[in-house]
Write a structure and sequence with these properties.
Layout lengths: L4 E7 L5 H15 L6 E7 L10 H8 L15 H6 E6 L2 H10 L7 E3 H4 L15 H26 L28
Parallel strand pairs: 1-2, 1-3, 3-4
Helix pairs in contact: 1-6, 2-6
Length: 184
């Protein structure tokens, strides 16, 4: 992995959304023959190290042909932020919390939906006993990653910092965005 750049996906518990997003992004990079250029990792803002991925997230991803069964949660550290060339959050609150704590990294922190030209949170399926809820979450993450993939590639290639609608330090209080809230 020496010489590879890190793309970091962040959610709250690092047992559902960010592990699913990491697996989907790895798959997109593999399809684009760019998987050897990047290390894709995930972390949580409010978790402890070593928790297994949600069984329903594992099942939802298995249905997509992706395996996250060996995933273990990782609490976001300052070293993670420093090492990443791009940090993608699932919610506006997470983005704002990271911007407040790691203001020096503002140019590399983005909300997932921003990459696709949208601005809304990805609802947390954790705590739900519904496989359907986890499938819908995975589907939405996949849609946003696929749609935002050209922007993502531009950002990690050093291009696209001024892409319309994509601002690393955008205001998380935009009233026109989804009211979905989760802990930072």
């Amino acid at each position: 992995m020496i010489g590879q750049d890190t793309i970091l996906l962040v959610c709250t518990g690092n047992v559902s959304r960010s592990p699913m997003a990491a697996a989907i992004l790895e798959d997109l990079l593999r399809e684009d023959s760019r998987n050897t250029e990047f290390v894709v990792r995930s972390a949580g803002t409010w978790t402890r190290d070593g928790l297994a991925a949600s069984p329903l997230a594992v099942e939802a991803m298995a249905e997509r042909g992706l395996d996250i069964s060996t995933h273990r949660s990782h609490h976001l550290s300052p070293q993670d932020v420093e090492q990443a060339i791009l940090i993608i959050t699932m919610t506006r609150d997470q983005k704002q919390a990271l911007l407040a704590e790691f203001h020096q990294a503002a140019n590399k922190i983005y909300l997932l939906s921003e990459l696709a030209g949208e601005r809304h949170d990805i609802a947390d399926p954790s705590g739900s006993d519904s496989l359907t809820t986890h499938r819908e979450c995975a589907r939405e993450i996949g849609r946003l990653l696929r749609s935002g993939y050209p922007c993502l590639v531009g950002l990690v290639s050093g291009q696209g910092r001024s892409s319309p609608g994509v601002r690393p330090s955008g205001d998380a209080t935009d009233a026109s965005t989804s009211p979905t809230r989760s802990r930072p």
